[in-house]
Amino acid sequence: MSLDGRPAFPPRSGFSCGLNAPQAFAATRMQAASQPALESGRRRLLALAAGFLACFLLLAGRLFDVMILNPDTGPAASAGVRPALAARADIVDRNGELLATSLQMASLAVDPGLVLDEKELLTRLKTVLPGLDTQALSRALHSKKRFVNVRAELTPKQEQAINAFGLPSVIFRIKERRVYPKGALTAHVIGYNNTDQKGLSGIEYNLNERLSTNNTPLALSLDIRLQGVLHNVLEDGIRRFNGVGAAGLIMDAHTGEILALVSLPDFDPNTYPKAPDNARFNRATLGGYEMGSIFKVFTLAQALDENLVRLSDSFDCTRPLKFGRFRIRDYHPEKRWLTVPEIFVHSSNIGAAHIIARVTIPGQKRFLKSLGLLDAPALELPEVAKPLLPKKWTELGKTTISYGHGLAVNAVQLAGAVASVVNGGYRVTPTLLKRDSAPEKGPPLISPATSAAMRGMMRAVVVSGTGKSAEVPGYLVGGKTGTADKPAGGGYNRNARLASFIAAFPINEPRYLVFAMIDEPKGNKETHGFATGGWVAAPVVGKVIAKTAALLRIPPVNENDPKVAAFMYQSEKMSGKKAETAKNQSREKYQRTP
């Protein structure tokens, strides 16, 4: 308001805004002339904004690539920042227990061109790395090398302490290292990697692509609890009988899953370069052995299934059997006629030779092949031996194979074949990978009746035969012993043998198989100087079953079950005991529990 009460500014009316007509017309023309300039400026601003947006998106994309997609290749890695995810999948047992994992470790190097004070550098590094050879490092710093490696692996504390020195010449390189928490316990199954995270043996080698491209943990069939029990019992067997090695496994008789697999001696895969060749050798899969009398399981199963013999048949085992210039003898001769079950229970080579005489060479080969004994098993390990077959399959070769000489197989093959005989007659394919369900059954290899007869005879071996020391009170164990002299110089070394035993339990309805082998055992006072499968390997298997039955949730036998009582009666009848007393003895024996 002005002093006289009138408005300070005149009211606006029309387009004049206080201008006369010529002035308004001139303003309109100026406004029209400025429109192209405004549009041009607006376009420039939009272009500039689009450029800024493109730069932002480019930088954001690069950051996403460096930090998320490829964390090891960006500048963060060279600065010592660890990537968020391991590139190699973990390996776990069937219950999720960690068996192999990758940790990010820092290595230490020095750039000689950035060393400001060599004495200070060497002195400071020595305080953190007491074992450092400073003289050798000094010589390397004066070489023409662009980078000098100081330590391949640093602990987090060492890395932190060296980094705190603030030395510009120090370089940290971040790499992954494979770590095996269970050490030697799973060495022959898991294997190990090189420094570039590539598998060199075991599962690490055979499934290298799967572990490298899929970060999901790989679940094995192993149960680390059972692995520990088997490992400890086999170690004790080596000590007791002064053996040079051992092998063993536990397998599901229906799915083929290997729940434990041990080879001794073993090694720590965390420090594999220091392991001797003998320790790296996998006796359970890479070792091919003549398994001795365990092969009588297959001889009798074939003969019974093809109706070539009956359980009631008997054969003359009174004296050694002449075969050309060779003689077939029994280790503990009964020197009498033996029925088919007695041949099995007393492990008579003479009786097995009589039985296999009724089988043709092509027939024997066909049957053994159907069980997987003539081909390498398709196991998930590279260390798997092919069976050693006779160059020429002769009548003599057919005979010696019937009781376990002349054909060498590995422990996994043997277990798969025995499982196929006792589980009702269906082929079992061994595996080290966890299966969510049992595989579909193929056509039976033998009839259920033949399988039942073999289970009864295997039980009889433990009741009163060569496998009595495998008995576990409260559980029905059935099995077969094997003793074989080791080949040497075109013949056999009578002072070096393999003692083995394979068992299934509960043998009336088999769930699991246990195999144990001691290499070159020596007899002692406890065994009266004997070092056979019955004295050496059978008690090992018995201990394993006693310690693992509860872990496998196998309840003690219920002798009041009519099916169990009938099976016990029949198996003890097969053992040669009088039928009238067998049942009573069974009741007394199985009333005990572990």
Structural class: alpha+beta
Name the overall outline.
elongated
Largest sheet: 5 strands, mixed
Chain-averaged pLDDT: 86
Q: Approximately how much beta-strand content do the residues carry?
A: 15-25%
The CATH topology annotation of the largest domain reads as Beta-lactamase
Q: List low-pLDDT spans.
A: 1-19, 70-85, 578-594
Radius of gyration: 39 Å
What are its keywords?
5-stranded antiparallel beta sheet, 2 domains, Penicillin-binding protein 2a (Domain 2), disordered C terminus, elongated, disordered N terminus, 5-stranded mixed beta sheet, Beta-lactamase, 20 helices, 594 residues, alpha+beta
Structural features, described:
The protein has 2 domains: 91-220, Alpha-Beta Complex (Penicillin-binding protein 2a (Domain 2)), CATH 3.90.1310.10; 227-274 and 290-590, DD-peptidase/beta-lactamase superfamily (Beta-lactamase). It has 594 residues and is α+β, with helices and mostly antiparallel strands. It has 20 helices and 18 strands. The relative contact order is 0.09. α11 (296-305) runs antiparallel to α17, α13 crosses α15 (395-402) and α17 (448-464) crosses α19. Residues 1-19, 70-85 and 578-594 have low confidence and may be disordered.
Give a short synopsis of this structure:
39% of the residues lie in helices and 18% in strands. The chain has two domains: 91-220, Penicillin-binding protein 2a (Domain 2), CATH 3.90.1310; 227-274 and 290-590, Beta-lactamase (3-Layer(aba) Sandwich), CATH 3.40.710.10.
